[in-house]
Amino acid sequence: MNPYLSNKIKIVSFICMIMVVFIHSFNPATIELRNNPALKINYSLAIEYFISNGIARISVPIFFVISGYLFFLNFAGTKDDYFQKLRKRVKTLIIPYLFWSAFCLLVNFSLQSIPATRAFFSKGLVKDFGFPKTMYVLLLDPMAYQLWFLRDLIVIVFLTPIIYFLIKKAEKVFLLALFILWFLSFNFKFLTSEGVLFFTFGAILAQSGNYVAYYKTVTRSYTTPVVIWLAILILETLLFCMKLSNSMWGQSCHKIAIVTGILAFWNFYDKPEIERLINKEKLKKIATLSFFLYASHEPLLSIFQKILPKVLGKGNIATLITYFFCPIATIVICLSIGYFFRKKFTKLYEITTGGR
Hints:
The protein is 74% helix and 0% strand. It has 17 helices and no strands. It has helices at 3-23, 28-35, 43-52, 59-72, 79-112, 115-118, 130-139, 148-158, 160-183, 193-208, 223-241, 248-268, 272-278, 281-287, 290-312, 316-344, 346-352. Helix 9 packs across helix 10.
């Protein structure tokens, strides 16, 4: 992989990680409004929807595309290739998944054991789980809910021989079938159609050797795709405000926005002015903390979300302050802890982040 693409993946991954934190940042007051059809949509909810369920929704598909691309890069489909890739994913996926799932379970148990913080937990106490449920939560349904991505990715990695076979035998038909399943929001219990679709798309890019997204020409437009994407997001938000987000039109608009947004965002990175701005060495170093931010932002974000509304209340202004403060504070704290952790406990940091 050339240095430009390597740096691009690091920076894009970091920006997408910030988006993921914002996806998880709907605060309790806003969720109450969203889930109650009788309540009116207010401007704070519309802003949150536009950012968290609009702009930020391209992040997870991009992560799957990058994962598929990296797995199938220089992959010849042999048994040796597969097991070599699999051994690396034990280090980069399975060990970090188990560590952070156990860590979050322990944090929740500790906080539930303190009378002052026990009231913030309404989904049952860890001490009452019993061994079967504890193992289920640890391995399949982690309390750090963001780990679903790693869980799905681990499942997909084990399925890569099948994906490779179908790409070679019926690439277009396979991709179309996956796209239809994703568009119809069809998912298995521990495997999303979104994950398989975009992982497969990344695999096809790696296998084809024709990396279209990296190809640049002097006549390429950078801003037009972004304008189109934002226009679609505005339409999607308007449909949401009209309480039509779950309709066929709302769901279709959401899917179109994701595809358009991925292309626009990936393309916009190559704009010369943007490239000069974001390729600074300091940002590259911060970007190396992306995985730590991913793994550690819960339960810290949820703690902020539960405490702040009790202090500020549930009005529009208070809701917006909560919405922006919680993810920003979480990002700053997690990055600071990650930097300190990496500097003082380098070996342990490498194990818990898969060597990233």
